[in-house]
């Protein structure tokens, strides 16, 4: 029986390299593919190049060599039509919920920011400019996004400082999903949170992944989070991918010595 064909990548790095000015290359000849429905983890020690690769995939930085592809097309910042499509389809969640939310704005305006910046219509699937009465329709979409992350609609009228760290990260996730993206790029989304809150945010991301068909690309040093959320894992060491494949295989039977060291460094509770 012929196995089902792998769907084409929505986002990919094709032999990318990157070097900061006056420094050794942060990435060299790195290739990864983000396939719909197959969430991807980028793991490695600090300085391995994980966040740099995520910035390339977000279009925030241009590669020194190689290409970043979106739906098979090279990501070109001068192509306004392509970039608008890309920004709607790919949304970020950053590490620190205390610095990623503007403290001067109410939550409703923060969550609605992608709708405003992309000029999206108020109602999902419509085309052209937002119709009259769009403010009410945008408020409805903001409320739906807040409910999806487990917050009440009334949160839209409050300020970030009125919420805990875990709630702020939920607000950041609501902002990312309000425009119904295909891919969520998350940079250490739970590392700034306490252990019990991490579990709840990981459960939320898994629920959103399954309910909304989101594909998650996540930078993380927490292999337990990786195992819970991502079907595919790429391991970076000194700016190069040394191993990648199904998460169960990479973490359960690592082939590369560096991956074995990462897995072996995970703390384990002593036997009682």
Describe the structure.
The chain is an alpha/beta fold and 272 residues long. The chain has a single domain (11-264), classed as P-loop containing nucleotide triphosphate hydrolases (Rossmann fold), CATH 3.40.50. 35% of the residues lie in helices and 21% in strands. The chain contains 9 helices and 10 strands. The protein has helices at residues 50-57, 80-89, 107-117, 134-148, 165-177, 195-212, 223-229, 247-252, 257-264, and strands at 11-19, 25-34, 40-43, 65-70, 73-74, 90-93, 183-187, 215-219, 232-237, 240-246. The strands form 2 sheets. The protein has a 6-stranded mixed sheet with strand order 6-7-8-3-9-10, sandwiched between helices. The chain has a 4-stranded antiparallel sheet with strand order 2-1-4-5, with helices on one face. α4 packs across α5 (165-177) and α5 packs parallel to α6 (195-212). The N and C termini lie far apart (48 Å).
């Amino acid at each position: 029986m012929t196995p089902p064909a792998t769907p084409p990548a929505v986002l990919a790095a094709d032999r990318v390299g990157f070097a900061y000015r006056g420094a050794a290359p942060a990435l060299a000849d790195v290739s990864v593919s983000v396939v719909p429905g197959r969430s991807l983890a980028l793991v490695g020690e600090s300085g391995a190049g994980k966040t740099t690769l995520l910035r390339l995939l977000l279009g925030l930085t241009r590669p020194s060599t190689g290409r970043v592809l979106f739906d098979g097309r090279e990501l070109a910042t001068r192509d306004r039509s392509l970039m608008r499509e890309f920004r709607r389809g790919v949304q970020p969640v950053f590490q620190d919920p205390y610095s990623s939310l503007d403290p001067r704005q109410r939550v409703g305006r923060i969550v609605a920011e992608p709708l405003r910046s992309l000029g999206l219509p108020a109602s999902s699937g419509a085309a052209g400019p937002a119709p009259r009465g769009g403010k009410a329709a945008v408020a409805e979409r903001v409320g739906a996004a807040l409910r999806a992350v487990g917050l009440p609609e009334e949160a839209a009228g409050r300020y970030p400082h009125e919420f805990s760290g875990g709630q702020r990260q939920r607000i950041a996730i609501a902002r990312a999903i309000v425009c119904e993206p295909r891919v969520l790029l998350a940079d250490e989304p739970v590392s700034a949170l306490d252990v019990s809150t991490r579990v709840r945010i990981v459960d939320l991301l898994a629920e959103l992944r399954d309910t909304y068909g989101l594909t998650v690309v996540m930078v993380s040093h927490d292999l337990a989070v990786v195992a819970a959320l991502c079907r595919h894992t790429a391991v970076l060491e000194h700016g190069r991918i040394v191993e990648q494949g199904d998460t169960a295989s990479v973490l359960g039977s690592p082939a590369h010595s560096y991956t074995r060291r990462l897995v072996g460094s995970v703390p384990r509770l002593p036997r009682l």
